[in-house]
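Researcher: Can you fold this with uridine-diphosphate-N-acetylglucosamine in place?
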Amino acid sequence: MLKIINVVGARPNFMKIAPVMDEMLRRGDRLQPLLLHTGQHYDEAMSEAFFADLQIPRPDINLEIGSASHAEQTARIMMAIEPVILEHRPDWLVVVGDVNSTMAATLVAAKLSVKVAHIEAGLRSFDRAMPEEINRLVTDALADLLLTPSKDGDENLRREGVPPHKIRFVGNVMIDTLYRQLERAKSSPVLERFNLQAKNYCAMTLHRPSNVDDKATLAGILDALEAVQKRMPILFPIHPRTRARINEFGLQKQLARLPNLILTEPLGYLDFLQLYSNSRLVLTDSGGIQEETTTLGIPCLTLRPNTERPITVSEGTNRIVGNDPEAIRREALNALDHPAQALRVPALWDGQAARRIVDAIEAASPG
Ligand code: UD1
């Protein structure tokens, strides 16, 4: 029996672990998977709602870490996870993505000589001002099995000196979940709830510290939306960090001048899938949404200076716009009139990544 601890912590982890847990449970004669939630995200809308929507089993272990500075959050996760790993002595610790929980769990397992498999390895924005880039570099330096979503990930890892036998190109596991849930999402009432007509509205998300933690930058982005929301409504499910900054910076007055920019609480997986898959255009600073829009051929503008997912630009519908208000306004209006077409869905974004991931873990296990 291979004992495996699967680690999740924050919203973008949940849709990646769902198909992997599923696949491991299906191989219950050989694998004994446990699910550990660090509790980095804890609000009902940021965590529970995803477990319900994606039918993820309840975590076997919940560390209930919560929010704190980067150092404190990372340290708390490390301190809480160490005794759990010592108690269970798993054959593998599986981490996903690039959040603080990913890096913290990896550091502890590596020092206890527990093998680490990293799902979504090799992505690089080459921008160390992003906390996620630091998490990616540290996690990939320590992991024993690096499971990449696209070939650029393999190249980045090889360039950093990772031995090729540790790298496996398995495809994009987020897309497994996307395809599995597409049908169910169609019964979400989200369009009716906000009175939206398919292909006649935009969807937006914004939560990166570099966009929302500085008053002038956040105000500039909101300002850029004025002309866009005159053309069609923009639905904006708002991350708790962004909500807090809007209040702190007193930007409510500015929002009142944008009547067609509709703010709402963070949506669950199915509602959000229904929302963006029917939208005319998505504006985002998320990583995963760049991939989901590419897969469904929905035009996407990324409000960041760079992306760790370049394949969404070279093969998909994504454009990197940055956060300059004039560029956002120009590119958004242009995208409404001339929507980007996807060349193709990237290789191995086919709904079968979880199977390849669990195959790779089994193949890399002795005996
Ligand atoms: C984290 C990830 C980021 C990911 C994002 C998705 C890191 C470094 N960042 O950023 O890569 O794209 O999740 O959401 O791991 N908060 C709540 N309730 C919650 C969670 C957060 O109110 O359930 C608020 C708190 O004020 C907290 C702030 O959001 O301080 C930031 O949360 P944190 O987990 O530190 O980072 P995110 O910005 O969510």
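Model: Folded with uridine-diphosphate-N-acetylglucosamine in place. Residues 187-337 form a domain with the Rossmann fold fold (CATH 3.40.50.2000).
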